[in-house]
Amino acid sequence: MTDTDPTDRPTRELDEAIRSDALDCVMCGICVPHCPTFSLTRNEADGPRGRISQLLGISQGGLAPDADVTRHLDTCLTCRACEAVCPSGVAYGRLIDNGRARLAQEPNPAARPKPTARHWRWLRDQLLTRRRRLGVAWQLYRLVQRLGLGGIARRLAGPVGRALPRHAPGPISRRTRLPVAPTTRGRVGLFVGCTGAAMNANAVAAARTAIAAFGYEVVEPAGQGCCGAMHAHGGEPGEANRRREANAAVFKATGVEAVVVVGTACAAELGALADSHDITVCEITDWLLARDKEEWPQVAHLDYRVAVHTPCSQRNHLRQPEATRQLLASIPGLELLEIDGNARCCGAAGMQVLLYPEQAEELREPKLESIERLAPDVVVSANVGCATHLAAGANLTVRQPVELLAESILAARP
Ligand code: SF4
Ligand code: SF4
């Protein structure tokens, strides 16, 4: 075993888990045309069926992983579009996560997944998953932009610069926090994620506003941390599990009735706690949609044409493809527009946008073209990673659906 993650499962155990899932695949190929990476290369090895074959070969000892094999597996976006259409119920998401954990244990460094390299792990663990540090870095980037140097900063900062939005949105309004109601319907915990003081700060503020307007007390425990998604999909399931468990302990101690998560990818990751800890975990859009009619506050008319982006984590992981549209349908005046190819991953996919920027940008291009054709007033996406990736490719700001709801609630107040 390498120094990748000392809490990982032993290789033999991983091989057994991979074999068991891979043998569910009957190699029918129905999933292949739905795969975004296959659509780019037309190489079977870059599609789900090919990846399953490679993983099966590795787990049975018949295929020795090398840099080529690892690249085919590594470029998978874990979008799970293949899993959503598979008639045999192959648990592809679990399979590829186990596959990467298995490859992370390879003695040959060239055969290990890219995110396990020391510099990528440093970036992830020292900046991307540290909310305060990321918030400071975001404020610095906004300052650089105000000085007119944003383009230079983006060019000089390598893949990180390429992934930064062209316009870093600042706080929309400082007066978004509603007073706590004298009697509340309940208490919920708010999971703000690593980007909650940076790219997602407006969405977090909007979530506070919306939850309070529905009559609930919002609890934000200081000890909450990264959900572990980047570790789970980057070959370090042990570390991902440790982070999930730490969040479970923090939120359980507050006694809240539900953990409301701002962001579909984090919600999908923390969803596992529902089984292991009897904790209700709900993505903010889903939580709002689950409120009874009498809990709804007054909402005002918003005269926007809104292009809706559906993240894979919302469509395929949480299996709530209509949630954003359903929430926005409750705001009078909005005209909802569909971005072409919404069922296909935009390429952001957690750290993939940094690890494989060319692939990420190629997959983003048709979406940006569609947005340009639609010429909406607002683009929405329920996942901050997708929102940031889209905004890095064009002069647009991408907002979370809850931001529009909060705006509508505030506009309805005297
Ligand atoms: S993963 Fe499912 S859809 Fe794809 S080839 Fe295997 S059985 Fe067919
Ligand atoms: S998860 Fe997405 S990128 Fe990976 S094989 Fe399935 S469809 Fe292709």
Which secondary-structure class do the elements indicate? alpha/beta
State the helical fraction.
40-55%
Fold-level CATH name of the domain at 294-411: Rossmann fold
Straight-line N-to-C gap = 63 Å
Low-confidence stretches: none
Give a quick summary of the entry.
By secondary structure, this protein is an alpha/beta fold.
Can you put this structure into words, describing what you see?
It contains 22 helices and eight strands. The chain has 414 residues and is an alpha/beta fold. Among the domains are: 11-110, Alpha-helical ferredoxin (Fumarate Reductase Iron-sulfur Protein, Chain B, domain 2, Orthogonal Bundle); 294-411, Rossmann fold. The strands form two sheets. It has a four-stranded parallel sheet with strand order 2-1-3-4, sandwiched between helices. A four-stranded parallel sheet has the order 6-5-7-8. β1, α11 and β2 (216-219) form a beta-alpha-beta unit. α1 packs across α3. The mean pLDDT is 93. The structure holds iron/sulfur cluster (2 copies). One iron/sulfur cluster binds next to α2, α3 and α5.
